[in-house]
Amino acid sequence: MNQPILTLQGVSKEFQSKDRTFTALKNVTLSVEKGQYLAITGKSGSGKSTLLNMISGIDYPTNGSILVNGLDIRQLSESKLAKWRGQNIGIVFQFFQLIPTLTIRENILLAMEFVDVIADADRENRVNELLSRVGIAEQANKMPSALSGGEQQRAAIARALANNPEIIVADEPTGNLDSKTADSVNDIFSALALSGKTVIVVTHEKNTALKYHRIVNLKDGEIEL
Length: 225
Ligand code: ADP
Ligand code: MG
What we know:
Blueprint: E1 4-16, E2 21-33, E3 37-41, H1 48-55, E4 63-68, E5 71-72, H2 78-88, E6 89-92, H3 104-115, H4 120-133, H5 149-160, E7 167-171, H6 179-194, E8 198-202, E9 214-219, E10 222-223
Parallel strand pairs: 3-8, 3-9, 6-7, 7-8
Antiparallel strand pairs: 1-2, 1-4, 4-5, 9-10
């Protein structure tokens, strides 16, 4: 395998409540190659979202290491991590999470402002390019609530791409869409992987027609071999 872009070594995650410890991930070891289109499957509660949160640095593992492009992300301080994430990981959620009081264009510009790697002068053009790429160029100046679910998810994908991250993670991105709309959103993820991005998608779908390079199934917090 080529140099992995992402390596998880012996990752476990425990959640502590007052009277007990719940282990959501157990000794997860996984390498993901650059450009891979990876699906993470498993029943509800199997640890899929927890695993994505580890990869995107939204949450820390209890044990184990996570290397992204050779960088151990646990070494980063909270503020460095937020900036690192914005630059390196594009995140797509099931319920889109667009800011409701901003237009689609403003949502994407805000992501660029926060990370500040795209030059000011290039931002407007880049917004237009990204929206064209996901097929909603004409929606740029609308509020999220004026868009259909599928269009909102396309906008959220455009936002995830704002700072040109190497890795895209998506947590059940089609979970709230009808199957036809879901297919067209999945096509966008396929195209991203073909263009060289590393794409990691949590999904309930067992649609083998989807062009994943690899499927990792989680069962009770462990990778099922
Ligand atoms: P999935 O995404 O596969 O449905 P999750 O990763 O969300 O599963 O959750 C895995 C398990 O960890 C579940 O049993 C869930 O209740 C538990 N869990 C997730 N987050 C927390 C948390 N912050 N505190 C306590 N338990 C949690
Ligand atoms: Mg989940």
